[in-house]
Write a structure and sequence with these properties.
Rossmann fold; alpha/beta; globular; binds flavin mononucleotide; 6 helices
Length: 192
């Protein structure tokens, strides 16, 4: 059975982005996949220390729970990431995780031995939710996710952004959003 790895970045458990993410995963499940959800906020890990030790073999020497995340990405078949908008972009928890993939940047570009092969392309999807209607915020987040997916050899295949949802669980008032993200999860895994 194929596995979808789902990264939830909000510190708010069962908040809007996590609700959407789980609906996406439910769609993938309906299409015959299994999923594993990681709550980034529950991981004990430090930001990248820019020590460059990873330049020699592509491996991060910082011994914390990020060491559990790398193999999960390697062993999954596709990736979906969900983030709330915070201060006009994706949240700090997710950015901290992304920066810890600097070792994969070295593996890909300097050592030419990426941990995830370039072909066939694995797929990545992004979900974001913000309180304000301002489109630019989600676009900022999407730009960063594109860089991340490119670095880890995942093809950015799409995103869904929801604006105007602030209170915990507010997204539940929008059955259209839930249906859309569920269908997106189903469609995402089709043909993989
Ligand atoms: C620290 C912080 C900063 C935020 N900054 C923004 C922002 O710049 N723009 C915005 O639209 N919403 C912002 N929000 C609101 C969240 O994006 C919104 O409440 C979202 O629904 C939270 O998703 P969650 O329930 O998955 O955590 C911020 C929330 C927090 C806690």
């Amino acid at each position: 059975m194929k596995t979808l790895l789902a990264l939830a970045s909000s510190p708010r458990r069962n908040g809007n982005s996590e609700i959407l993410l789980k609906e996406f995963c439910r769609g993938a499940e309906e299409a015959g996949w299994q999923f594993e959800l990681i709550h980034i906020n529950s991981l004990e890990f430090r930001p990248c220390q820019a020590c460059d030790a990873c330049a020699k073999d592509g491996r991060c020497i910082v011994k914390d729970q990020m060491q559990e995340v790398y193999p999960k990405v390697i062993n999954s078949d596709a990736l979906v990431v969900a983030s709330p908008v915070t201060f006009g972009s994706l949240n700090a928890q997710l950015k901290m995780l992304i920066d810890r993939f600097q070792c994969w940047w070295h593996a890909k570009y300097n050592l030419k031995t990426p941990f995830v092969p370039d072909e066939p392309k694995r797929k990545g999807f992004f979900i974001c939710v913000g309180a304000l209607k301002r489109k630019q915020y989600c676009e900022n987040a999407i730009e960063i996710i594109k860089v991340f997916f490119h670095n880890i050899n995942h093809k950015f295949t799409g995103s869904l952004a929801y604006r105007g949802y602030d209170e915990k669980g507010a997204i539940l008032q929008s059955p259209e959003a839930l249906a859309e993200v569920y269908q997106a999860g189903k469609d995402f895994v089709k043909g993989i």
